[in-house]
Amino acid sequence: MFQRVVQKSARSAGRLQLQAPRSSRSSRTLHTTPRRCNASLNSTATSFIRSHDKLASVENTPYFIDNAFKQSAATGAQLVDVHDPATNELVTRVPQMTRDELEATIASAAKAYPAWKNTSIMARQQIMFKFVALIRENWDRLASSIVLEQGKTFADARGDVLRGLQVAEAACGAPELLKGEVLEVAKDMETRSYREPLGVVAAICPFNFPAMIPLWSIPIACVTGNTLVIKPSERDPGAALILAELAREAGLPDGVLNIVHGTHDTVNFLLEHEDIKAISFVGGNKAGEYIFSKGSALGKRVQANLGAKNHAVALPDCDKNHFINSVIGAAFGAAGQRCMALSVVVLVGETQSWLPELVEASKKLSVNGGFIEGSDLGPVITPHSKARIESLIQSAADEGATIALDGRGFKPADPAFAAGNWVAPTIISDVKTDMTCYTEEIFGPVLVCVQADSLDEAVELINRNPYGNGTAVFTRSGAAAERFRRTIEAGQVGINVPIPVPLPMFSFTGNKKSVAAGGASTFYGRPGINFYTQQKTVTALWKSEDVVAKKADVSMPTQS
Ligand code: NAD
Fold first, then answer.
1. Ligand 1: which of 280, 306, 469, 507 to mutate, judged by most atoms within 8 Å of the beta carbon?
2. CA 108, CA 110: separation in Å to the nearest integer?
3. Cα 516–519–524 angle (5° rounding)?
4. What's a Pfam family in this record (predicted)?
5. Exposure winner among 29, 236, 396, 410, fewest CB in 10 A?
6. What pLDDT digit, counting tens, does each position of 2-57 carry?
7. Do 274 and 357 reside in the same domain of the chain?
């Protein structure tokens, strides 16, 4: 773990420092190793960027093939600019890889598959143990990349890494999870089941969890014997590339994990490629529903986690302070850019009078650059996202709601952040369920408040919403909590817990419009192992005595 030292200079006040500041070196970056590729990769476990200062030079993001980083031939309009959301300074450029480059990465994964499939599960487990240790060692380095490209606060970015690391830790239990079954089904006859890998599989990731979501796929797909091609979000690919570097160091052979880049063309390439047997997608409904239907139509397995609108219910008997702190944390943390953000609060009965306290507590959050000590939430991902969020806030005002706290127009005190994508916590009250701010997933630091007279009315309101990712109820009553648990349709339910994402011994169980195919294939846990493997059953007969058959029996065997 690095030592945090706060620089004293006014320019860098409050910024996290890896080592004691060195006057001979620019305070902007801490590059102690030779530059290899983009800013995230040009770092080590103990030396990485920790301020929002402009980079001395900007390099294109490489792709990863056969355990090597390579630069794409893409130029000009085929490069997507990635900016630090706190400053909008350029950080890297992500290529729309050429068709030949994409083809080569699939060929590499296909070539690696037979040997990897036949590598013993114990050897694969050892690699996973090393991978886990390396992620722990590089935890802050990964978090730094997330702050730089995605905009989260450093503490929140560490949480992003942790929730992925936990999936890798759980994947170390693969020998247990892959065990088949055996049953003696008749005299001298037994049936065994095996779980075998699928082949080359692909994962398409969103921008909001640059480490966690690649880690929903890398450990499980690889430990089960598949080879994997990942497409990180074109908006923040750095963490996925660091993970690839760590996987190589852990011992994954060439081609077992490749990383490709691009946008729609790359996604379509992966969808259409006949060597790819399964697609894991996490992102919004527009892309996800398209990917699910096209991938399924082309005969691939597809798991797809989609958008959300998560409700918290406040019952009058709840612990008020716990409720207020929980909702504020879950609504505004990560600037509201979590699929499990609590974006709607249902105030039941007298809790409607708590609105002013909710507003006052929200005003206390510090909105600032993610590298700044004490910052509670950072900027949103792009200027386009900021403009969309602001227009949804305006739509609420236009449609008759009340803007109880308006975070538009916010700027942190430091002029270095003047060009960032800032939206401060915003609370909208008097909202009706037909208003745009309620029907749209805002994906920003905006909390929408609706009212209900009873728990049953609150449950009915939530169940009418087409999304079903998560929900939470705040109460001291076991009976009320149990009624909520039984009647609510959302797939991940918190009882006095604001973000009830289960740890990886369970699975991520969103439902309704928040997941494709009613959640038939969920991420991680035992269902994750099932997704990345196919079953084979073998029925064997070992006669204990010689039999002289009089005639072949052509009726359907009953094995009895
Ligand atoms: P997005 O759908 O815009 O992008 C996700 C991925 O799909 C990216 O890699 C992108 O390049 C690709 N993509 C985007 N549009 C595409 C198209 N039309 N055709 C083909 N590919 C396309 O999502 P995002 O903005 O990166 O992430 C935010 C969304 O993800 C939110 O809706 C959020 O709720 C959702 N999300 C869901 C979960 C979950 O588990 N349910 C988790 C995280 C994020």
1. 306
2. 5
3. 110
4. Aldedh
5. 410
6. 333 333 333 344 445 433 333 333 333 333 343 456 788 889 999 999 999 999 99
7. no
